[in-house]
Amino acid sequence: MKILITGAGMIGSIVAMELCRENDVTLFDGSDAALKRVSSKEMNIELIQGSVFDEKKLEGLISTSDVVVIALPGNLAVSVAESALKQRKAVFDISSIPNDVLLGKIRELADENKTLYVPKIGIAPGMTNFLTGRGCVGLDFVKDVKIYVGGIPQKKESPMGYKTVFCLEETLQEYLDPAMVIENGNKKYVEAMSCLHNVDFEGLEGLEAFLTDGLATLAETIPAENMSEFTIRWPGHIQQIKNLIALGMFDKNEDDFEGMKITPREYLISHLAPLWKMEPAKGDKDLTLFRIVVKGTKDGAEVESKWETVDRYDEERNITSMGKCTAFSCTSFIRAWMKSLFNNNGFVFPEKLSVNDSLYRYVMESMAYHGVHFTEQHTTLKRY
């Protein structure tokens, strides 16, 4: 099968190197340096440099492909998604396209053209959606859903206890965007970084968890009475972020600085970028923390389903944990589709796929094969 992957960053390059074993893979990116990093691994991948805003070039590449994988920042992903759907090419999208665009024109295009489009199919969102949906299967009533997820360096000593593998601008924005939650069956927005509390994982105690706007499509599809998503960081991180916000360092208004026009946000990003960059070659190693708890009622009993993992930097493959978890979530669903374990057309919510037992088993086995092991517990809390 011919697969076009747009974006040769950490996630896109792992997806390309994984899928090229049994497919014809083309990797498209605007950065020559990013493409050269992939070529140095001597994989059988066609590398093409160019801009996603070069419509003629992009459309030409899509036209000769069977599947399009989008591994780009959200602001670059929309044009790729639209072009692929207009040409009726199956799309697996890891990007963070804003929900209003995603559930608006992207969904309309996919449904109108009866073309598969699976959005936000990484680890979070993605596996968070899939397993939340699985936890709701068979419930008479969904009482409460709590999602905990975070990528942190293994050593807290990193500046502010953090390193990132994603777009820094998008990471910073998460500290500002109001977080959607479901309370008593109603959607509402609360202040970002609110509901700060401690959470423990195996071998890791006293981590910080705080609300962020990560429910994505779950708020549209899961009829929960209460639902929220929390991001995890090393303790003390959030207070430092709040201090930067209070000092105006997140502002986007231009200031004069020694004859130059610059926004505080631009300066902050330029300063944090080298400090927060995850660089395995320099000894940086990360953790991915993941927990989903779904509570509800079934057959007259109060029940709970829980999935959890603490995943670490992959020493064997020399790839980050977050890269591994995100990329292999995507490739697991692509391979499942190629094996006809699901054959949906149009816009497909990941959380709606988990009712399929064969698909669920395949995805979980595939993740385990790639070294991402989820514990799974189902408990009866009370009988009425």
How would you summarize the topology of this molecule?
Blueprint: E1 2-6, H1 10-19, E2 24-29, H2 32-39, E3 45-49, H3 55-63, E4 67-70, H4 74-86, E5 90-93, H5 99-112, E6 117-118, H6 127-136, E7 141-153, H7 168-173, E8 179-183, E9 186-190, E10 197-201, E11 204-211, H8 218-221, E12 224-233, H9 237-246, E13 255-257, E14 260-262, H10 264-276, E15 286-298, E16 301-312, H11 321-338, H12 350-353, H13 357-369, E17 375-383
Parallel strand pairs: 1-2, 1-4, 2-3, 4-5, 5-6, 7-12
Antiparallel strand pairs: 7-15, 8-9, 10-11, 11-12, 13-14, 15-16, 16-17
Shape: globular
Order of helices and strands: EHEHEHEHEHEHEHEEEEHEHEEHEEHHHE
Number of helices: 13
Gyration radius over CA: 21 Å
The CATH C-level class name of the largest domain? Alpha Beta
Under CATH, the topology of the largest domain is which? Dihydrodipicolinate Reductase, domain 2
**Terminal Cα span:** 53 Å
Residue stretches low in confidence (pLDDT < 50, at least 5 long) are none
Strand content: 25-35%
What's the quaternary structure here?
single chain
Tell me the major beta sheet: 7 strands, mixed
Query: Which strands sit side by side, in order, in the main sheet?
Result: 10-11-12-7-15-16-17
Helical content class: 25-40%
CATH architecture designation of the largest domain: 2-Layer Sandwich
CATH superfamily of the largest domain: Dihydrodipicolinate Reductase, domain 2
Number of separate structural domains: 2
Summing up helix and strand content along with how strands pair, one would put the structural category as: alpha/beta
